[in-house]
Write a structure and sequence with these properties.
It contains 21 helices and 31 strands. It is of the alpha+beta class and about 700 residues long.
C-alpha cells in the first residue's frame, strides 16, 4: 500500500471525526441554551443562594415595680460591598469623589485610626472588589445614626455599597442586681441560666429568614427577600428592685466584713409566695463578690439548727411533747450510739421544750427524736415528707435543686441517723425549701408555692397571668401553729434565746438561728479547721406577717464570726428594719440611729474630701499632703491622711473604694484607657495595683 495515501486517509478520517464532534457539541450547546437554559440557570442560583436566620428582638424582663432588669439593645455591624454596581459605575467616580471626606468622618467617629489609614484600607478593598467587607462590628445606635449622614453612605445602599446588619446585645441595666436569677442570655440558648433560660421560648420570639447570595467568597443579602422575625414577649417578675437592693447590700456588707465564701438572702411575700428578692453572692479570687451561682435555689447543704422547726412540728403533731414538757440537756453533751452530740453552750440541765428550742439545744432535740422515733423511723420521715422537705419547691426557674431526706430503707440508715437528722444533719436542703416551712407558719399554716413571674406581656398587654398557688392547706392544726409561733418568738424575745440581741423595740419578728459544721472538699467535718454555715430564717411582723426571709451564709476559715445569730441574723434584721420602715408601718418613719463602731475608708481628691467632711460636720484631723488623700471615719471622727495611690506614675494605682469620677480622673491622667461597668464605688480592677503598664493600655473597673 502506498504509505502516503494511507497517511492522507487517516488524516482525512480524523478531520471528519472532529467536524462531526464539533457539530454535535455546537448543536448540544444551542439545545441547552434554547430549551434548558431556564432550568440550569435556576440550578446555578440554588447553589449560590440560601436562606439565613434573622433573630427576633428578644423580649425584656421587668421587675414588679416597673424597672427593666434585662433588655436587648440593638448593635450594628457595618459591611461594604465594593463590587456593587453603584460603587463601580463610571470607573468608580462616585467612590473616588467621596473617599477623602468619608475617611475623615470615619476616623472622627471611631477614633481608632487616622483618616489616612481609613483611606488606604478602603482603597485597597475597592481595588480587590471585596464583597461584604466588615468595616465595623457592634457599633451603637448613636454611632449608626451619625454614620448614616456620612458622605457616600447617605446615598443609600445601592450607590454606596454600605450594608447594615442589626443584632441584639443583651444587657442588665442593674448589673449585679438579681443577676443570677434574671440570668444570662447567650447565642447558644442551651447555655442560658435563670429566667432567661426558663422563659426562653417566650422571650426569643419567632426567627425570621433572609435570602443571601454567595458572591466572591462571602454571602450578601438579596434586597426585598426577607421574612421578618416576630419579636419576643416581655415578662414581669415578682422581684421588687428596692427590696432586692436592700437584701443584696445587707448580704454584701456582712460577707465582706466576715470574709465569707458565699451566701444567699431570699425575701418572700407571706400570703402569696412571691419571691420579692433573691440575692446570691460568691467570693471571687480577688476577694470581691459577684452573683456567680444561685445559692438560694440550687445549693443543697446540711441546714443545721434551722431544721429543728421540722422536728418540733413532728413532735407536737404526734402529741409526744408540749412546749412546756421538760427535757434534760445533760450538761449540753451526750453520746448517741457511740457518736457525741454537743451544744454550743455547755452546762444546761433540765429545761422546757420551748426553752430548748429558743437556746437551740442539739442534745434536747436529738434525745426527743430518738426517744419517740427510734423504733418508728418511717413516722418521722413521713412528717418531713408531708412538709415537702424532700420535694422540689416547684418554683418557675430551671436549675432549682431537689432536697434530699434519707429514708429508713436507705442502706446508709443507722442508729445515729434520727438524732442527727433532728438537729439538721444527714439531710440536704436548699434555703428556699426550708423558707417555705417558715413561711407556712407565718401564713396561718398554709404553704404557698414560691414563684418569680407575675405575667407574660405583649406590647404592654397581659397575655398570661400567674396567680398564687397553695401547696398545702394546713401543715398542722391551729393549736400546734400557735405553739410553733410562740417558740419562734422566744428565740428572739426570751433572755436565753439565741437571737435575743437582735430584738427590736419597734416591731416584733420571729425566727430561728442555725449554725452547721460543713464538710468541705471531701475532707470531712473534723480534719483541720472547721468551716461553719450560718443561717437565720423567720418572718415579720410577728402578729400579722408580711414577709418571710431566709439568710444562709457559708463562712471561711478566716471568718471572725460563725454563729447564725451574729452572721445571718444581722442581715435578716437589716432587711426587716428597712422593709418595716418603708413597706409595712402605717406611716413611713426613720429608724432610730444605731451606734456604728465600724471603720470606713474613702479615697479621693483631698479638696473634695475636705468639703464633704465640712458639710457633715465631722471632727477632722488632717495630716495629708499632696493632691490625693484617704479619709478614715470611725465613731463620728474623721482622719485625713496622705495616700500613695498616685505617687508612682509608672505603676498601676489601687482605685478600689473610689467613686467613678475620681477613678477615671486618676487613671486617664496616668495614660490608661478606662472601661467601667456598674455604679457606686470601685470594687475591682482588671490590672493589679503596683504592676507596670503601657500608655494607652485598657483597664476595666467594676463598680457596685
Amino acid at each position: 500500500m502506498d504509505i502516503k495515501k494511507d497517511i492522507q486517509w487517516r488524516v482525512h478520517l480524523c478531520f471528519l471525526i472532529m467536524i462531526v464532534l464539533g457539530g454535535v457539541v455546537f448543536g448540544r450547546a444551542i439545545y441547552i441554551q434554547k430549551f434548558q437554559g431556564d432550568y440550569w440557570r435556576s440550578m446555578s442560583n440554588k447553589q449560590h443562594l440560601k436562606y439565613m436566620d434573622i433573630n427576633a428582638e428578644r423580649g425584656s424582663i421587668f421587675s414588679e415595680d416597673g424597672n427593666m432588669l434585662s433588655t436587648s439593645i440593638p448593635v450594628f455591624d457595618i459591611h461594604v460591598d465594593f463590587g456593587a454596581d453603584g460603587v463601580r459605575e463610571k470607573g468608580g467616580e462616585r467612590f473616588y469623589k467621596n473617599l477623602d471626606s468619608l475617611s475623615r468622618c470615619l476616623a472622627g467617629l471611631f477614633k481608632d485610626a487616622n483618616a489616612a489609614s481609613y483611606k488606604k484600607e478602603l482603597l485597597a478593598q475597592y481595588k480587590k472588589k471585596t464583597r461584604y467587607y466588615l468595616l465595623k462590628r457592634k457599633i451603637s445606635f448613636d454611632e449608626y445614626r451619625e454614620l448614616r449622614e456620612f458622605p457616600l453612605v447617605r446615598l443609600g445602599r445601592n450607590k454606596s455599597g454600605f450594608i447594615v446588619d442589626v443584632r441584639d446585645n443583651r444587657v442588665n441595666p442593674y448589673v449585679l442586681l438579681a443577676n443570677r436569677t434574671i440570668g444570662l442570655s447567650r447565642g447558644d440558648t442551651s447555655k442560658n441560666v435563670g429566667l432567661e433560660r426558663s422563659y426562653d421560648s417566650v422571650l426569643k420570639g419567632q426567627t425570621g429568614q433572609r435570602l443571601m447570595r454567595y458572591i466572591a467568597g462571602s454571602y450578601i443579602p438579596v434586597d426585598g427577600a426577607e421574612i421578618e422575625p416576630e419579636n419576643g414577649m416581655d415578662i414581669t417578675t415578682t422581684i421588687d428592685t428596692y427590696i432586692q437592693d436592700v437584701a443584696e447590700n445587707a448580704l454584701l456588707r456582712m460577707m465582706t466584713q466576715n470574709a465569707s465564701i458565699h451566701g444567699s438572702c431570699i425575701v418572700m411575700e407571706v400570703k402569696t409566695g412571691k419571691i420579692k428578692a433573691i440575692a446570691n453572692l460568691g467570693r471571687r479570687p480577688d476577694g470581691s463578690y459577684w452573683e456567680d451561682y444561685n445559692y438560694g435555689l440550687g445549693m443543697r447543704t446540711e441546714p443545721g439548727s434551722v431544721f429543728k422547726i421540722a422536728t418540733l412540728i413532728s413532735l407536737l403533731k404526734d402529741n409526744y411533747v408540749d412546749t412546756g414538757s421538760i427535757v434534760d440537756c445533760e450538761g449540753g453533751q451526750k453520746n448517741f450510739y457511740g457518736l457525741r452530740i454537743a451544744d454550743s453552750h455547755l452546762g444546761t440541765g433540765q429545761v422546757t421544750v420551748k426553752e430548748a428550742f429558743a437556746m437551740s439545744s442539739n442534745v434536747a432535740f436529738a434525745k426527743l427524736a430518738d426517744e419517740y422515733y427510734h423504733n418508728q423511723p418511717t413516722k418521722f420521715w413521713q412528717h418531713l415528707h408531708d412538709l415537702r422537705l424532700d420535694t422540689s419547691s416547684g418554683i418557675d426557674i430551671v436549675g432549682a435543686a431537689k432536697p434530699y431526706v434519707k429514708k429508713p430503707s436507705n442502706k446508709y440508715w443507722a442508729k445515729t441517723t434520727i438524732p442527727f437528722m433532728a438537729h439538721g444533719y444527714e439531710e440536704l436542703e436548699t434555703p428556699l425549701n426550708l423558707l417555705m416551712v417558715y413561711n407556712a407558719i407565718a401564713n396561718n399554716g398554709t404553704m404557698m408555692q414560691p414563684y418569680l413571674v407575675n405575667s407574660i406581656n405583649e406590647m404592654g398587654e397581659e397575655i398570661k397571668t400567674f396567680k398564687p398557688k397553695v401547696l398545702i392547706d394546713k401543715i398542722c392544726d391551729e393549736q400546734t401553729l400557735g405553739k410553733l409561733r410562740g417558740c419562734l418568738l422566744a428565740v428572739v424575745e426570751s433572755a436565753h434565746g439565741t437571737a435575743h440581741m437582735l430584738e427590736s423595740d419597734i416591731y416584733e419578728f420571729a425566727g430561728k438561728t442555725g449554725t452547721a459544721v460543713t464538710a468541705m472538699d471531701n475532707r470531712g467535718y473534723n480534719k483541720g479547721s472547721k468551716i461553719y454555715q450560718s443561717a437565720f430564717m423567720g418572718y415579720f411582723p410577728a402578729k400579722n406577717p408580711e414577709y418571710s426571709i431566709a439568710v444562709v451564709i457559708q463562712n471561711s476559715s478566716e471568718s471572725k464570726h460563725v454563729y447564725g445569730a451574729s452572721v445571718s441574723g444581722p442581715v435578716f434584721k437589716e432587711v426587716a428594719d428597712k422593709l418595716y420602715a418603708t413597706r409595712v408601718a402605717d406611716k413611713p418613719f426613720n429608724m432610730p440611729p444605731q451606734p456604728d463602731n465600724n471603720v470606713y475608708q474613702f479615697y479621693g481628691l483631698k479638696n473634695d474630701l475636705n468639703k464633704i467632711l465640712d458639710v457633715f460636720k465631722y471632727k477632722e484631723t488632717d495630716s495629708a499632703t499632696g493632691t490625693w488623700g484617704t479619709t478614715i471615719l470611725h465613731d463620728g471622727n474623721a482622719k485625713l491622711v496622705a495616700d500613695n495611690v498616685a505617687s508612682n506614675a509608672t505603676k498601676v494605682p489601687d482605685v478600689t473604694g473610689m467613686g467613678l469620677k475620681d477613678a477615671v480622673y486618676l487613671l486617664e491622667n496616668m495614660g490608661l484607657k478606662v472601661s467601667a461597668s456598674g455604679r457606686g464605688k470601685v470594687i475591682s480592677q482588671s490590672l493589679a495595683q503596683n504592676t507596670n503598664f503601657n500608655k494607652g493600655q485598657q483597664i476595666k473597673i467594676q463598680l457596685n
